[in-house]
Amino acid sequence: DIFKSLLNKSSEIILNKYNELDSQKGYHDISQKEIKSWFDEKVPTNGMSTDEVLKIVKEKIYDTATGNLGPNMYAYVMSGGNQISVIADKLSSAINQNVTKWHLAPAITEIDKRVIQWASEIIGFGDKVGGFIGSSGSSANLDGLTVARNIFFEKQNIRANGLFGFKPFIVYCSDETHSSIDKSIQLLGIGTNNLKKIKTNEDFTINIKALKQQIVEDISNGFLPFCIIGNAGTVNTGAIDDLEKLSEIAKENKMWFHVDGCYGGLASSLDSKKNLYKGIDLADSLALDFHKWLYQPFEVGCLLVKNWDLMQRSYFQKASYLDKSFEKENSRLDLNEHHFLLSRNAKSLKVWMTLKVYGLKRLKDMIQKDIDLTEFLKNEIKKSEDFELVSDSPLAICCFRFNGGLNNEDEILKLNERLIPALESDGRIFITGTKLKGKLVLRACLNNHRKNIKSTKYLIETIREVGLSLLK
């Protein structure tokens, strides 16, 4: 009865939050000092009542949370989550399955495998597939490059010998590639000096000619071309590299081809965008991020490779306490043999439930809606005299500036530098900036199924109002 009461009370807090999404602020401008003071205490010696703790959670956490769920969130590439996944996370926590060995989580292990198969089917990666359900797109990029390194240098037994004695091997990507690639290259011991960032075209896609020239130069200098990374939707602008051409170059030079599809990969399922993703099925490894465009609450990402054997050859480490030879069935797939992690929760359940409840068609319709809404925003900016469109993304990111009617470039730059923190202080909408070709711009991310024409107009109106106030 006590547990039932707690479930009901916690559900009421959640429901109240969802009832106010349309009016929810994008950001609450509360100082770090104040928020720190709320939790600045020693370890409690004695416990409080659950009602008191829930009151703190409601007032100090829920009421001040950044508005990721609602339509006024435009900062960073994050979706608003969906209601079925909230239920899924609650259900998965309740059974506390450890998705490491099959017999520790029989059903969830099979759901993990099925979600990986479904992801491959959705984007057309191929019928034969292996992979891993992890925490994020960043982790999926690290996982993919780990498999790339371990399989590419398998004959040299790199897992045992390490990198010592290897001549420099080079990774290639565009200068618009996600920062998780830099971090992955560092963690894998390759070193960012061996990460060659190729300049981009006007549309922010990788310059193929420059890439080819760099590979020729590196070979002549005695380096080993190892891996090409293609972007299936960059995080800055949504630019999609020529994946088919990158695959050809990788094949010609006997290189691994990894695709970062964390932001835009799932849009390859749309008939309206499929032609932009030709060659995605030719990738050796592919990173996806379900808490971006599958509308999942944090956190869940996914790596796809061409078969399970690649994962096992990259990660398997014998341990006596994990030996399956003494188990009833020793042919079952244990996920701990196919990744670095052992203990892990049931991340795949919410993805599985989402696809089961909503179906792929409805999810694809939502992705298309986000893209259409971005087109609406771009057209509104083009029609206005006080906004400037900076990039023409094929996906759901819009980069632009507010000029306030100014003509001087330095004045416009300074205005936007002041505008971003001013909008954060205002809090009605939450939007951040980025730099494109060295120019500071506002960057609106619209991958949220709760956004609509009304909320998008509100974005423009709010930026204009705050921007004009800075000119007074």
Number of domains: 2
Largest sheet geometry: 7 strands, mixed
Helix content: 40-55%
Helix- and strand-based class? alpha/beta
Distance between the termini: 60 Å
Q: How does CATH name the architecture of the largest domain? A: 3-Layer(aba) Sandwich
Stated plainly, the CATH topology of the largest domain is called Aspartate Aminotransferase, domain 2
Brief digest:
The chain is α/β, with parallel strands linked by helices. It has helices at 2-19, 32-39, 50-62, 83-95, 106-123, 137-152, 158-161, 179-187, 208-220, 243-252, 290-293, 308-315, 348-383, 409-426, 453-470, and strands at residues 130-134, 169-174, 195-198, 224-231, 256-260, 285-289, 301-305, 387-389, 397-402, 432-436, 439-445.
